[in-house]
Amino acid sequence: MPASFHLGALLHDYIERSTSMRNGANVAAGMIASKTTLLQRLDAGFYPLPLADIAGLRRFLQISLIAEAVYDAVLAARLVYCSRIT
Q: How much is the mean pLDDT over the chain?
């Protein structure tokens, strides 16, 4: 990756959760919902960012949502493949 991107200012309010989003129940559904909301807000002009930054964030979220959608199938295929070669 030729560059990384960091948002220096908070773009949302934090909420207190009893569990981590990554370690709680229904992780994939929660991440998909969060990323979808971010994407919708980017499209609606909710965040005061330059257009080039919005385009980059949109692309990142789109790729990430594709990865979330195919993760279970890829993991299952990998497990089947690994079980055949060991």
A: 80
Range of the domain at 69: 28-85
3-state secondary structure string, 14-75?
CCCCCCCCCCCCCHHHHHHHHHHHHHHHHHCCCCCCCHHHHHHHHHHHHHHHHHHHHHHHHH
Summarize pLDDT for 60-81 with one digit per residue, the tens: 999 999 998 888 888 888 878 7
Give the model confidence (pLDDT) of 27-38 as tens digits: 778 888 889 999
Structure-token pair, residue 52: 């080039």
Domain-embedded: residue 44? yes
Domain count, the chain: 1
- CA pair distance 70, 86, nearest whole angstrom: 25
Q: Is residue 79 part of a domain?
A: yes
